[in-house]
Structures are given as C-alpha cells and as structure tokens.
Amino acid sequence: MAILERSPYKVLDDAVKPVKPVVTTMILLLCLWGFYEFTVHGLLWAKNGAFSAGKFYYQVEHGEYLKMITMMFWSTFVQTSLWSFIANIYFIWLFGSTLEPRLGTIRYLMLVLACMFGGWYLIGLDIGRASQYVYLGPGLVTCGIIGGYLIFFPEKKISPGGQLRSYKIFKNEKDRNPAEAFGISPFIVIALFIAYQVALHHFMTNTPYNIANMKVVPAIETFILGNLLALGLVMMATANVGGHPLRRLAVQRYQQLRALDMTHDQAISGSARLLSVPEEQVKTWVARGGATLPEKSK
Q1: Residue 139's closest CA among 219, 32, 53?
Q2: What CATH topology corresponds to 19-240?
Q3: Are 157 and 182 in contact (CB under 8 A)?
Q4: Of 174-178, 191-195, 253-257, 294-298, minimum mean pLDDT range
Q5: Where do the structural domains in the chain lie, given as residue ranges?
C-alpha cells in the first residue's frame, strides 16, 4: 500500500496562514441578530434590551451580577435603524479584522469582552442612578477595539474594506509601497467614527424615547482600556516589554517559523503575511532585534 506523504510546501503554507477574524465575524452576526429583533419587535423591545442605569445600580446593590452581565452583553448588539446597523458593522469589521489576526483569536476575545463589560460599567458609573436614558449599541466596544488597533502602527493606511493585505509565501517580486497597498489613513476613519457617534448621539437624544449610544468620558476610558489591554497582551505573548508591539510580534513570528526549518527568506515572508506588513519592514525589525539565524547547513 502506497504511503501518502504530505508535501513540505503545504506545511509551510499552513504555518503562515493568517488567523481568520472569527470573533469579529461573530460580533457582526450578533449585530445582525439585534437589528432583526428590532425590525420584528420594534422600539419597545430595543428599550427593554438596552443598558439602564436603574437596573445597573439595582443589580449591583443586590448582587445580581449574572443579570447585570446579561444586560451588558445583549445591549451591545441592539440596533435601532438600518443605517446605524450598517455603520456599526463597518467600523467593527474595519478595525476588528485588522486587530484580531495580530493579537490572535483568544487574546482578541479577551480584549473585546473586557471592553464590552468594562465600557458599560464605566458608563453606569458616569450617568448616575437618576439618568432617564437607556444606552445601546456597539459604540463603546468599538472604541476599545480602535484603542487596541492603535498600538500596531506604523502602517500609514488601512484598507477601507477592512481586508488585510495578502502575501504569498514564495514570490520573487518586491513588496509594493505600503501607501499603495492600503487605501485610506486610519486617522481619517477614526475621525469618521467619532463624527458618526456624535451625529448618532444627537439624533437619538433628540427623540422622545430617551435612548442614547454612549457618553464622551466612558468612551475615552474604554479606548484607553483597549489600548492598554492590547499592549499588555502583546507583552505577555512575546515576553518582552521593550520596543514597538508590532516589531516584537514580527520577531517572535520569525523565530517560530525558523524553528519549523524555514529558511531566513521564507520566515521573513511568512511573518510579513501573518502580520500584514511589508517584508522589508520585517527584515529591518528582525535585523535590529538580533533575531536573524544562520541558514541551516545542507
């Protein structure tokens, strides 16, 4: 009986396959669920599923933490219109599909949950017991995701569709200029996100339904929470506290691929593909990080 052997090229290709944005996709599906439920049950359902200060303080005082967590979770995904649903999922996908492959699925999930529950807790402390407004939507958790994304500069542009740049493990052509690979400055997208949230807040609070999306101070605090948590997760993953987080991850990925018997060039290309950065940048980081290993003797 013939023994089928796996091609070594397939092994190399599997080793540099980027992480799929599974958690980000799940968030989008939950937002879709929230929009569907709103279209079926209407505004009263949305208000009942939103974050309420009265419920929050009652649950804290009476130790009903499971109910509090449940309220925080589902209020994140309530949508109240088609255009707000489209805008919310666009910003989540744009930044989440970039951040998740770099942090990894488990670490990204930890960041999302911390920003989700932490954001609602912060807004509960900010609005006070007497607030008549209820809050809903994924705006706060998106602030945390953006905060986590910002530790991974220096890419100057990001794809407006939220897609990572695709690399081939074996290729002879030189990397293009990063400005040609990405479509728009992330600062422009962040400014658009802020403008959208301000407009949404103005629209919601000027209706007679006492609903809102977020407040400024908790949004800033959630952004900082996401930023610091992402930085801490990278430090734990790389066991290194110095230098740029993306550089540390690139050097770590390079060393891991070299340990799989890849050549120097293959490991550089694979690291670039995994982190969606130009190969020349990875070469520079590896050289400065002292991670270059000699070619294996044949």
Answers
A1: 219
A2: Rhomboid-like fold (1.20.1540)
A3: yes
A4: 294-298
A5: 19-240
